[in-house]
Amino acid sequence: MNTTTNSCLASKRASFAINSMAAVIALCAASTAFAASTGGFSTTDGGSASGSQAFTASSLDQLKTIVANAKSGGYPVVITYTGNEDSLINTMIKNHTVDSSGNCPNPRWSDAYRYVEIKEMTKGVTILGANGSSANFGIVVNKSSNVIVRNMKIGALAGASNDADMIRVDSGTNVLLDHNELFAVNNECKGSPDGDLTFESAIDIKKDSHNVTVSYNYIHDSKKVGLDGSSSTDIAGGREITFHHNIYRNVSARLPLQRGGWTHMYNNLYDGITDSGINVRQAGYALIESNWFQNAKNPVTCRYDSSNCGKWDLRNNNVRNPGDFATYNITWSSGGTIDATNWTTTAPFPISIPYSYAPVTPQCVKDKLASYAGVGKNGATLTASACGNTSSSSVTSSVAPSSKSSSSVAVTSSSKSSSSVALTSSSKSSSSAVISSSKASSSAASSTPTTSGNCSYVIVNNWGSGFVGAIRITNKGTSAINGWNVSWKYSNGTTLSGTWNANISGTYSASNLSWNALIQPGQTVEFGFQGNHTTAEIPVVTGSVCK
User: Fold this and answer.
1) Residue 315: which H helix or E strand, with range?
2) Sorting pLDDT into bands at 50, 70 and 90, what band is 450?
3) 442-546: CATH architecture
4) Which sign does the torsion angle of CA 176, 182, 187, 190 carry?
5) Over the stretch 86-142, which tens digit does the pLDDT of each residue have?
6) DSSP strands (E only) in 402-545
7) Positive or negative, the Cα torsion across 433, 438, 439, 445?
8) Contact 1, 33 (CB under 8 A)
9) Where are the domains of the chain?
């Protein structure tokens, strides 16, 4: 990151006087100091790269011109947007709020879509809203990489019939959408096209998009939050998206509507879902971890996908079992192909998370996140130090690079393979076993693991009457391990009703399968099981490989 705060400020002074220079300092620092560590799949610095130029735009037209000049000039760019379109937003909200008969005063779904497009740009672009700015136009990332959109307040766009998304990522790679506020009206005007186009989405991520982080956004009063894929055929080899520390309030559906790929949702606040929430479809996988759900209808589901539902892995959320539904006002309706009405994991998340993250407790998310998410927070992030006594179960997770594979196992470096064993350092596998670096695991455990030598036992999900557990065997030596056998014993009568990626015998021992016998130095193999007991005991794991 070569753009300094001073150069950022110098450019801004030259082009526009901003009311609060302290805010600009903080926002410039935010765009240059920590973007590469996004807590998600994206690692972009956006426009803060070598040779970057900085400009200020006070209107959509100016923004378009600056983007076009950066594209033709071949340089990375940081653009501070200072315009205010609150009056347009307020008019749009008034025009699209239903009366007692369901009619809207002046619907504008046929209007032209107002937007700025970042198209076929790879040098790096950052669009940064100044505090107090607002936009009644969208931002489209099209076949571009290394893009940041931060601190933008975008509301109630006209032109839903013309696909007027607030933010759209089409074939975008390494994109960060951070600390924005996105909103419309959560109702449907009578007579809208297809009965579904009063407004379009807050955030759509589609086509060949990869490594996207959506973080610290405040998304509210919207019927359609966002797509991950536009149709059942828009899979693109699987998109990798992280949604963390977002607030969703009074929203109808699509949080997101996921088609294929891998999503990781952690430390989000879901409050007021009026139709359906995280909708995992087309064989996608979702890791749903340390979130707070309340006043939510069908919060985790597979709907409108009768034959190819995705899978979810539920870990450490405030809702632990169906007995919590009444406490948090979680309700269900008919229409789901599969609903999380038993609040259990349907499949372990099959890939290694390639980034470090430190989730705070769901209680801390509920209590504190509003002070950090949305615009005007100057890039602030929520850490355990802000949580007080609610942060006791916070876990820092740092796991190996991922790999894509339809195989049973992946051994970590960057490949997409359909073979039975993919040898890669960035492998995504559809199985629950992940062989990766010595820090590897598919995510943070819900309980502190016990470790004996190179073996650890972790609880990955606990719903009160049962749990999903895993044992991880790490080779900390200098030579390969060829074959392994471990044992553990429960003192409370726990029984196992399902196991995977190991041969299980007795009560209990596990040995390798043919494809996961070999563990190279620094790599980890993992196998899992479902246990039945009201207390998820954590026993010591023993065996020659554990010493």
Assistant:
1) strand 311-315
2) low
3) Sandwich (2.60)
4) negative
5) 999 999 999 999 999 999 999 999 999 999 999 999 999 999 999 999 999 999 999
6) 402-405, 409-411, 416-417, 421-423, 427-429, 450-452, 455-462, 466-474, 481-482, 485-487, 495-500, 503-505, 509-511, 518-519, 524-532
7) positive
8) yes
9) 273-398, 442-546
What is the average per-residue pLDDT within 215-219?
A: 98
User: Does the domain formed by 273-398 have CATH 2.40.50.100?
Assistant: no
- The residues assigned a catalytic role are 254
389 Cβ neighbours under 8 A, 6+ residues apart:
none
Which residues make Cβ contacts (< 8 Å) with residue 241, sequence separation at least 6? 40, 41, 205, 209, 212, 213, 214, 228, 256, 261, 262, 263, 264
Copy the structure tokens of residue 383.
């850490």
Residue 51 CB-density burial (10 A; 0-12 exposed, 13-18 middle, 19+ buried): middle
Percent of the chain with pLDDT over 70: 81
Return the structure tokens found at 17.
């006087």
Bridge-based pairing of strands 518-519 and 481-482 is antiparallel
Closest CA to 262 of 442, 418, 439, 424: 442
Name every residue whose Cβ is closer than 8 Å to that of residue 288 and which is 6 or more positions away in sequence.
265, 266, 278, 300, 312, 313, 314, 315, 317
Q: Is the peptide bond before 193 cis (omega within 30 degrees of 0)?
A: no
The 8-class DSSP code of residue 162 comes to G
The angle at the Cα of 240, spanning 41 to 387, to the nearest 5 degrees, equals 45
Q: Kindly report whether the peptide bond that precedes residue 248 is cis, defined as omega within 30 degrees of 0.
A: no
> What SS3 state is found at 459?
strand
What is the Cα–Cα distance from 162 to 235, expressed in whole angstroms? 23
Average pLDDT over residues 237-260: 96
Our CA angle for 343, 348, 349, nearest 5°, is: 110
Cα separations in angstroms, 304 against 188, 312, 494 = 20, 16, 38
Helix (H) / strand (E) containing 301: strand 300-303
Give the separation between CA 205 and CA 259, rounded to whole angstroms: 10
Residue 375 tokens read as 């615009």
**Beta strand pairing call for 145-150 and 125-129:** parallel
Phi (first) and psi of residue 290, to 5 degrees: 55, 45
Using DSSP's 3-state secondary structure scheme, residue 252 falls into strand
Query: Which residue type, as a one-letter code, is found at position 134?
Result: S
Check residue 463 and report its DSSP letter: -
Distance CA 97, CA 513 (A): 60
526 band by pLDDT with thresholds 50, 70 and 90: confident
β-pairing, 181-183 vs 153-155, is parallel
